[in-house]
Amino acid sequence: MIQQILFCIALGIAIFIFSKNLKFIIRNIKLGKDLDVSDRKPERITTMLKVAFGQTKMAARPIPAILHFIVYAGFMIINIEVLEILIDGIFGTHRVLSFLGPVYDFAIGFFEVLALLVLVSCVVFLVRRNVLRIKRFFGREMTSWPKADANYILIIEVVLMTALLKMNAADYLLQQMDADHYVKAGSFPISKALFVPFFEGFSAETLMLIERVGWWFHILGILAFLNYLPFSKHFHIIMAFPNTYFSNLDAKGRFTNMPEVKKEVELMMDPTADPFAVPAPDTNAEPTRFGAKDVTDLNWRQLMNAYTCTECGRCTSECPANQTGKLLSPRAIMMATRDRLDEVGKNIDKHGEKHDDGKALLRDYISEEELWACTSCNACVEACPVNIDPLSIIMDLRRYLVLEESKAPQELNMMSTNIENNGAPWQFSQADRLKWAQES
Amino acid sequence: MLNVPTLAQMKASGDAPDVLFWVGCAGSFDDRAKKITKAFAKLLEKAGIKYAVLGTEESCTGDPAKRAGNEFLFQMQAFGNIQTLNAYEVKDIVTTCPHCFNTLKNEYPELGGNYTVKHHSQYLQELLNEGKLSIEGGAFKGKKITFHDPCYLGRANGVYEAPRALIEKLDSEMVELKRSRANGLCCGAGGAQMFKEAEKGEKEINIERTEEALQANPDIIAAGCPFCNTMLTDGVKHFEKESKVKVYDLAELVAKAEDLI
Ligand code: SF4
Ligand code: SF4
Questions:
Q1: Which among B69, B73, B206 is positioned nearest to B150, based on CA atoms?
Q2: pTM
Q3: A234-273 pLDDT tens trace
Q4: Which of A18, A234, A294, B251 stands the most exposed, by the fewest C-beta atoms within 10 Å?
Q5: C-alpha angle with apex A124: A121 to A129, nearest 5 degrees?
Q6: CATH number, domain B7-126
Q7: How far is A292 from chain B (nearest CA, A)?
Q8: What percent of chain B is predicted at pLDDT more than 90?
Q9: CB-side exposure of A197: number of CA atoms within 13 Å?
Q10: What's the whole-number average pLDDT of chain A?
């Protein structure tokens, strides 16, 4: 009984904190500008199923793809068992689903095999990060927290899987002893081989203790994990789905035509438009800012991208600028956006909507040098396993620099002047545009 | 000398072309790119295509301005070009520049310019398939050719096959680069980088790319973009390999096979 009460309290607290954190994140994402992506639903669902569920973009690197798929599928499937754990925990039952008979036996055995595979994969991942030190996991933006975050998650997984197997081993032995409460159910191929030999000869009390500790550890671990997610790159296990669903379906080369610029250009170019007949300015409307200076100038999809980033570095490792030693790293762009958005969100919670902390995404988080190193090649977008678009953020920040601050590199200003005056980025006269035809 | 009809001339004689050849700024002014323009014009002529250019009525699509963040200038350019194109009732466009291709195809429609736009690799492939051009003779027989995917043709627009189909028709040996197609490495010119010094770093991007291309040990590096062409040509010079390895545009390769240049 006391266990039931404790369990319900733990569950309640976990759900409460999780929903609070989730609300914080959803609110933050909504700070972004509007974007209509309600079109092409079937295509969006297919994209989500392929990229998030089927992880098709991981295939470019087969070894991590396989390991990642094991951990992902294993984790999802093993969590079916959590359903049983929840029922058992609330009602004080034990292995409530065991009435399923052979199906149950098979399932438990299968979960054990998966648990072992997940465990091994996580160990390999830890080795790749910490012993083999694969280049992609390092870099300027991979400071101590992101590195630790990645390791914590892997260690938690290893611990959780071990707890599960230990619990099963003890359970199995208790079943053999015909202990009260322990129904004979399940098959335990892995725990039998790995842990039972150590537990042989233990008293029923000790075994019960081991079983209970394993059980509690497993479920508390999962609840803790749930609440760790929103602060971690591991949030992608949830965010990957909406993020791919809402991702860009157009040609990657198509950049947005800024509607606010279009309005002005039309006004300028339309000979019939009376420049003084501009409708009376809406005094309540915030002045539009061209491009993005801070996270709130980005659209909600770009902000969702930031919360989805797994910090895997596939983008950065494909980035031509980064590969040739430039400061730019598309992963750093995403991490900076997330950090800044968290900060803005916390400020709002503390000081209210209108608070200005005097900081911005541009310069405080992302430097001009990074922005001007981008070739707009789309390699980062192509590489991202969850369809994140770092390039669009780079472009919006550039737009702000140029349109609001006139801060382009000098050579680019010259290029613009040339286009304006001669219709070409170089100093050639438009009248000479057909000269090539006369030259042999 | 080439006889290159302009849209204005055609219109004056009450005629209209089947396709507009959008030459682009590089193709009009850059000495290296002009050769590509001429090669392609000769191919159009040989295939008996009724084409025209805008000539002095053409103006920058605005691509470099847009990628440099100057959306205002881009839309001004787009506005002007769309007015010209729509006044001539242009429907089909072919261009030798993937940047013009991308901008005209993807970014102009929303601003009122709706055209069927093709990159010259796609157009040439069609001409060959329709039998309007046929590659004879073995100018490239036994030659090793590799292809550098332009970002704005490949990743940006998913065109990977047409350039390769052309190279295959040349009866040469096609070797793929390590990073090709969707994984192709940029030449370093995109995003208006062509017009500025690179930010500080350890290496120039075009050197990195050319290094990789040279590792494939080709006789010819094929490009499909005037800017990639410049970047790779500079790269080959950097490694002092210009006597051994040539950088050619796809149009130049086909024109050479046709004995036109
Ligand atoms: S688009 Fe820019 S940031 Fe992305 S890979 Fe290319 S150069 Fe790097
Ligand atoms: S943006 Fe995508 S590819 Fe880059 S680190 Fe984040 S998840 Fe990985």
A1: B206
A2: 0.95
A3: 999 999 999 999 999 999 999 999 999 999 998 887 777 6
A4: A18
A5: 125
A6: 3.40.50
A7: 11
A8: 93
A9: 4
A10: 93
Question: Same structural domain for residues A215 and A69?
Answer: yes
Is the CB of A436 less than 8 angstroms away from the CB of B34? yes
Residues A203 and A99 in one domain: yes
Beta-strand ranges (E) seen in B12-149 are 19-22, 51-52, 92-95, 116-119, 144-147
Q: Whose Cα sits closest to atom 8 in ligand 2? A: A312
Domain that holds residue A177: 2-30+61-236
Q: Strands B220-223 and B246-249: what pairing?
A: parallel
d(CA B248, CA B261): 12
Residue type, A426: W
Alpha-carbon gap: A428 to the closest alpha carbon of chain B (Å): 7
Which of the four CATH numbers 3.40.50, 1.20.120, 3.30.160, 1.10.10 does domain B135-257 have?
Answer: 3.40.50
Chain B residues closer than 8 Å to A425 by CB: 25, 60, 64, 194-195
Compute the distance between CA of residue B103 and CA of residue A404 in angstroms, rounded to an integer.
24
- CA-to-CA separations, A96 to A143, A179, A182, in angstroms, rounded: 46, 16, 11
Give the pLDDT band of residue B228 (cuts 50, 70, 90).
very high
Closest CA to B156 of A252, A374, A318, A391: A252
DSSP one-letter string for A257-288: --HHHHHHHHHHH-TT--GGGPPPP-TTSPPP
User: Would you say residue A102 lies in a domain?
Assistant: yes
Number of domains chain A contains:
3
Q: How far apart are CA A318 and CA A91, in angstroms?
A: 52
Tracing tokens 């170019």 back to the chain, one arrives at: A269
For residue B100, give both structure tokens: 């013009």
* pLDDT above 90: percentage of residues in chain A: 83
pLDDT-derived band at A285, boundaries 50, 70, 90: low
A146 touches ligand 2 (CB under 6 Å): no
ipTM of the complex: 0.97
